[in-house]
Structure of Chaperone protein HtpG:
Amino acid sequence: MSETVERHEFGAEVGRLLDLVVHALYSDREIFLRELVANAADATDRRRFEALTGGAPALPEGAAVRIVPDKPARTITISDPGIGMSKAEMAENLGTIARSGTRAFTQSLADAKPGDRPSLIGQFGVGFYSAFMVAERVEVTSRRAGAEEAWRWSSEGRGDYTLAPAERAEPGTDIVLHIKADAEEFLEPIRLRTVIRKWADHITIPITVAEDGVDEPANEGTALWRKPKSEITEESYAEFYRHLGHNFDKPWATLHWTAEGAVDFTALLFIPGMKPFQPVEGERDSRLRLHVRRMFITDEAQLLPSWLRFVQGVVDTEDLPLNVSREMLQATPVLARIRKAVTNRVLGELKTRAKDAEDYAKFWENFGSVLKEGLWEGGEHKDLAPLLRFRSSAVEGWTSLADYVSRMKDGQEAIYVLSGESPEALAKSPQLEGFRARGVEVLLLSDQIDAFWPERMERFEEKPIRSITQGSVDLSGIKSDDGALPEAADVATLLPLLKEALGTEVSEVRTTDRLVDSAVVLAAPEHGPDLHMQRLLQRAGRGFGAGLPVLEINPRHPLIRGLAARAETGEALADTAGLLLDLARVQDGDSPRDPAQFARRVAEALAGGMN
């Protein structure tokens, strides 16, 4: 065998391309290990396949990908017992940027039976060069299975490489990375194991990392989602769920299926049994893990819409075309079909589980507020409506829109809702008095998203959804359950006096039949945000354009009857008008316009009543 070292130029414009790989193609340096392990796994699978067809010797017992960090020498060696490479293959696969041996091999399997094909990860022939992100020099020693000679490829990633004869006792490949000074963190065994656990935990070939002369397992090696459901116990599902999301509870629902047809994929998803602890508001993106042929690719593929972000799990496909970095996904119809199929499957599971009211209530209390975001964010998802649950002014526990409609009173034309801070506070609101007197049910909405979605959904089963604080609500067509109400006072003189006294602080003063025990209440104009939305906008410093409130008075209340009589005598009511407006604001959970002045007026009114 000749000892001559051959020097070759790379088969591409390497200066610019290698700089792209090292500095732009990957966002995280640790990706290099995923790429090299993926190549090692592919090579091992190829040898296993060729051994079945008689084209290569069988894999040795206990075959594994070994990673050996050497801190004193500042090297990392990645060894595999795979198919190996001949001199020509090293020149072709390593000496030509973006020439993928895996892709060529995959194309050669066109006539092989699907069940006999190995599941190969690499596709683009550039992943190997990610090694130069952490290495100042890379050496590859490889011996092709079935051949006697071995060859060593070496390069500093600048523009050329060398090929020289070498020695290797068994078929396979050793990659030696001479680590850069600023990448010494990767010489720590624990760091390497962490990277493997993150990116390659479910590759079926064992991966070990050497520490103190002992090869320690670094991957679990079992893709649970690839197993038949009949072979998986509930305990195994629960263990994987806890491992996946670092959870401590049991999943409320487990979805495991394989889709075949327009696109093939396997999914194992979990709906948590409890709301995860978040000390601050978390991000709103779905974090389902996308795997391609068991190799973790990303958890940023947005496989579910944000309003299903509580779902955890894995989607694994053979069909997805990736771009060269594997981190960023191409815009592809395949991914869109996977997203649609996964979303529909989750919604189908929720609709099935919703038939058990007690069980579904557990889910709703944890994630109902998130699910309702879908009504606002996706107009095509109005089929979410059957999944919604609400607190109500008329029944205990949770109720659905369909159940609400079934209880609507004769003459009731709309689904009425009231938004606020909490169901307990809403249940005591004077806004409900007239509705309760007539037996009209009102849904009590207390999540922040409740201020938004009714505007987008608009109606359910042809019944409009109306906030009872927005515009004028006419309940005159619905008979009171309490019999005849007290006679209303004539307030024709009082109304313009109150409006004149309040000036531009209200848009209108009018009578209402929504009150029974209270004298006044606030309402929002017919068009624009309701009262709760106005308060949210004001807190955010965006209260402009909300419109002035409407002051509604109860003409049957003793206070209003007395004021109407005083108005007929021409008595000035400016201070009283301001007190009524502040009273209405306080009842709605807002502050008086001038708390100190309001306190003085109340004190004066009380003192006057004692005389």
In short: Confidence is low (pLDDT under 50) at residues 98-103, 117-125, 323-328. Residues 31-52 form the longest helix (22 residues). Residues 6-217 form a domain with the Heat Shock Protein 90 fold (CATH 3.30.565.10). The chain has four domains: 6-217, 224-357, 372-484, 485-611.
